[in-house]
Design goal:
The chain is α/β, with parallel strands linked by helices. The protein has one domain (about 35-270): Divalent-metal-dependent TIM barrel enzymes (TIM Barrel), CATH 3.20.20. About 40% of the residues lie in helices and about 15% in strands. It is built from eleven helices and twelve strands. The chain has helices at about 5-20, 45-50, 55-65, 80-90, 105-115, 135-150, 175-180, 195-200, 205-210, 250-255, 275-285, and strands at about 40, 70, 95-100, 120, 155-160, 170, 170-175, 190, 215-220, 220, 240, 260-265. Strands 2-1-12-9-8-5-4-3 form an eight-stranded parallel beta sheet. α6 packs parallel to α7 (about 175-180) and α9 (about 205-210) runs parallel beside α10 (about 250-255). The protein is globular. It starts with a helix and ends with a helix. This is Xylose isomerase domain-containing protein TIM barrel. GO terms for molecular function: isomerase activity. InterPro entries: IolE/XylAMocC-like, TAT_signal, TAT_signal_bac_arc, Xyl_isomerase-like_sf, Xyl_isomerase-like_TIM-brl. Keywords: Isomerase, Signal.
Length: about 290
């Protein structure tokens, strides 16, 4: 377990290594094989540390070599303007995206707008709606409503997938219901490539099939030969970028071609200290 002191020590070591390497914040560089996206980290990856040291977490993300933090509800205890200041003071760019709980979406629209977010993201629908097509239809109707509210405030409402959406249900899937019943002009997609793969999907195919919706990417690698599963509770197979079997050069290049400009590291669990894990993934992205 990483203590707060150890976390800060590791963050300082990561900062020193990053400064030595002089890593550009958007990973631009001569000879790059893929176009430049702007990369960030989803705050959920550091949720335990963020509960007690939000400014330190923002600095750790910056020091690992990332330009953005994608916000998560633990940060919203801060007034919007103060949160913007904390992000700026860390050296990060103003956040463009944030995750908000399904049940609090409508109440957080104005807060997200004050934060200056472009993407207003719902990361998951309630578990009691996963098991029936009617549950997904209910979510779709709600998403259309929230999507209009976001659009009225100059934002794009965006849904983040997991694997449960691809579980067969009565000859179809919850994913198909969501795609059929939501308005592409109001409901966009943040494609999590790990969870797509766990759900038996090809991230590249999903990306191409939803050119009109895909606006963000989530990045974490998946250990080779891990089984397909629709169960969020089973042991997961997360690993740092470049250490698994997901085709990141192809996905990132295709995403850029389709107009995606932001992608966020979101490794839910690590077997090494989080600052080290972030640095490994940042270095991999920098190498592309």
């Amino acid at each position: 377990m990483t203590t707060r002191r150890r976390f800060l020590q590791l963050s300082a070591a990561t900062a020193a290594a990053t400064a030595t390497a002089a890593m550009p914040r958007a990973f631009a560089g001569p000879g790059q094989k893929i176009p430049t996206l702007t990369y960030g980290v989803q705050l959920y990856m550091l949720r335990k540390q963020a509960a007690t040291d939000l400014p330190g977490v923002f600095r750790a993300i910056h020091d690992a070599g990332f330009a953005q933090v994608e916000l998560y509800p633990i940060a919203y205890r801060e007034p919007a303007q103060h949160l913007r200041t904390l992000i700026a003071d860390s050296g990060l760019q103003p956040s463009v995206s944030g995750h908000f709980d399904y049940l609090g979406l409508e109440a957080k629209l104005d807060y997200a707008h004050t934060l200056g977010l472009k993407y207003f993201v719902c990361p998951m629908i309630p578990k009691d709606q996963w098991e029936t097509l009617a549950g997904f239809k209910k979510a779709a109707d709600f998403f259309n409503k929230i999507g209009q509210g976001a659009k009225d405030r100059g934002m794009e409402f965006t849904f983040h997938n997991h694997c449960y959406e691809f579980k067969p249900l009565d000859g179809t899937t919850g994913w198909n219901v969501l795609m059929k019943e939501t308005d592409p002009a109001l409901v966009k997609l943040e494609l999590d490539c790990y969870w797509l793969t766990q759900g038996g999907q090809n991230p590249m195919s999903i990306l191409r099939d939803h050119k009109d919706r895909a606006v963000l990417l989530h990045l974490k690698d998946r250990i080779a030969n891990s089984p397909v599963s629709f169960d969020m509770g089973t042991p997961q197979h997360f690993t740092e970028l470049g250490k698994g079997n997901i085709d990141w050069p192809g996905i990132l290049a295709q995403g850029y071609k389709q107009g995606i400009r932001y992608a966020f590291l979101d490794q839910d669990g690590t077997t090494i200290p989080i600052p080290e894990s972030m640095k490994i993934s940042a270095d991999y992205l920098h190498s592309l």
